[in-house]
Design a protein that fits this description.
Layout (H helix, E strand, L loop, with lengths): L8 E9 L2 E10 L2 E7 L11 E3 L4 E4 L1 E6 L12 H10 L2 E6 L11 H11 L6 E4 L1 E2 L8 H7 L4 E4 L13 H11 L5 E5 L17 H7 L2 H18 L2 E4 L8 H9 L4 E6 H5 L21 H13 L4 E3 L30 H9 L6 H15 L17 E11 L18 E11 L2 E5 L2 E2 L16 H4 L1
Parallel strand pairs: 1-4, 1-5, 6-7, 7-8, 9-10, 10-11, 11-12, 12-13, 13-14
Antiparallel strand pairs: 1-2, 2-3, 5-15, 15-16, 16-17, 17-18
């Protein structure tokens, strides 16, 4: 079966239906899921294009709602062509592009249109877009919502790039007033500078030096600010890449008090631990930092108990020189980890050991991420009427990550050489086979996803 071909059906002995893996055939028409038929009742016409994948698992494609593509402006770091190929190779059928690290950032309507133009014809999977909140751009927010951004991202601390400055309290109140009644969502990089940092005298090559410079209290105080705003304005708020388990009680209390608040964590916080990071290994640096193994297990417990809503990559690539790998200086290296292609096996390798099931994978990596960005009526579920976005994968199969297998632009990742469980065999995008066994469709078939403005509960009533 040729890559790029339109499928009529996918057959497997293990299709994820609800919480169970069952023999079934997923039929597709017009890029949508038409029916899911039990194998015993199924008769598919002989002339149709049926992909029989044996006993590989078939489930909805992953929706990764936290990806830094960096185009336009920093395409030496990454770009839509390479990022979305990596996504397809990892069973990711939808990404949502972050507003910063591109130049210009997606902080005005004009900049959003420029982003759409740059991405045209380069996407191997479907792509939606976040806007950004920076000082003074509050009057751009509603026009961007009408144009189709999924929501907005802001920083409470220096973002790492000068063209995307962090917001003050007055900026946040101005933005919240604009977002009230829109149904949109504001995403927070939740760290705050809470105290003057002492003169640094510790060895910058030691990971502990960097870790001590970004203590848990920075997240705790930032999240306190977020929960107060969320309760005051009743605007949907979302905490990106939670690294510390300490603010979880604060988050739970805010939700119980009526805050429309969600929270994500990332594959690196669930897969890695501070104790295992070697001296000078700056490819492990990200912000907030990877914390200790005890904290990691608390994040897993919070996932199991429903206190963390979803898991994303926070794919944040850069060029090799920015990682300062020759000097190994953690204090000077760019903070960001590349993992877009490996999110599914990274999650499954750890989650399966802790009793998680494939249905949990779909909930945390597809359904909740689609809901956050307003795509939950179209993406993230194996149900009739949804986009026929499928990942075909082997949960038991092990593989080792090699540089030759990495499809994002710069091959720097802390996962190089790691052995994982859960190999992606094929990816189907709106009924078309875009990736199979290491090979890609020659033509990018991804679409731009412009999110329709969402009604608030008051408007629906």
């Amino acid at each position: 079966m040729e890559l790029g071909s339109t499928l009529s059906a996918v057959r497997s002995t293990r299709v994820l239906i609800g919480d169970r893996l069952c023999p079934a055939v997923v039929t597709m028409r017009g890029g949508k899921i038409h029916e899911i038929l039990p194998e015993s009742n199924c008769s598919v016409a002989a002339h149709t294009e049926v992909l029989d994948v044996g006993d590989s698992v078939v489930m909805p494609g992953v929706v990764d709602c936290h990806v830094h593509v960096n185009e336009p402006g920093r395409t030496s770091w990454e770009g839509f062509w390479t990022a979305t190929r990596a996504a397809a190779a990892g069973g990711v059928t939808t990404i949502v592009d972050m507003p910063l690290n591109s130049v210009p950032p997606t902080t005005t309507l004009d900049h959003f249109h420029e982003k759409l133009q740059e991405a045209a014809g380069k996407c191997f999977v479907d792509t939606a877009f976040w806007g950004g909140v920076i000082p003074g751009n509050q009057l751009e927010l509603r026009p961007m919502i009408q144009a189709g951004v999924a929501g907005f991202k802001c920083f409470l601390i220096h973002s790492g790039v000068e063209e995307f400055p962090h917001v003050t309290d007055s900026d946040l109140h101005a933005a919240m007033k604009q977002l009230q009644g829109t149904g949109s969502v504001l995403l927070f990089h939740a760290e705050l500078d809470v105290e003057p940092k002492p003169e640094e005298t510790a060895d910058p090559r030691q990971y502990s030096t960097f870790l001590q410079s970004r203590p848990d209290v920075m997240e705790m105080e930032a999240i306190r600010t977020v929960t107060d705003l969320c309760l005051q304005y009743q605007v949907r708020c979302h905490i990106v890449h939670l690294s510390s388990a300490k603010p979880l009680t604060l988050i739970q209390r805010a939700r119980q008090a009526g805050a429309p608040l969600t929270v994500e964590t990332t594959h690196h916080y669930l897969s890695l631990s501070a104790e295992d990071i070697p001296a000078g290994a700056t490819h492990f640096k990200c912000c907030p930092p990877i914390r200790g193994a005890e904290n990691r297990e608390l994040l897993w417990s919070a996932l199991r108990d429903g206190h963390i809503d979803m898991v994303v990559s926070d794919h944040s690539p850069c060029t090799p020189d920015l990682k300062n790998m020759q000097s190994g200086d953690f204090t000077q290296a760019w903070g960001g980890i590349s993992s877009l292609q490996f999110g599914l096996p990274l999650f499954w390798s750890s989650a399966s050991k802790r009793g998680f099931q494939p249905s949990d994978v779909v909930r945390l990596l597809s359904q909740e991420t689609a809901r956050l960005c307003g795509l939950d009526q179209q993406k993230g579920s194996l149900s009739p009427g949804y986009d026929a976005d499928l990942v075909v994968w082997d949960p038991e199969r092990e593989f080792e990550i090699s540089e030759a297998d990495i499809h994002h632009k710069n091959k720097i990742t802390p996962y190089l050489g790691m052995r994982l469980r859960g190999s992606v065999r094929a990816t189907v995008l709106r009924g078309r086979l875009v990736y199979r066994d290491g090979c890609f469709c020659s033509t990018p078939l991804g679409k731009h996803l412009l999110v329709q403005p969402r009604k608030t509960q008051d408007e629906e009533q």
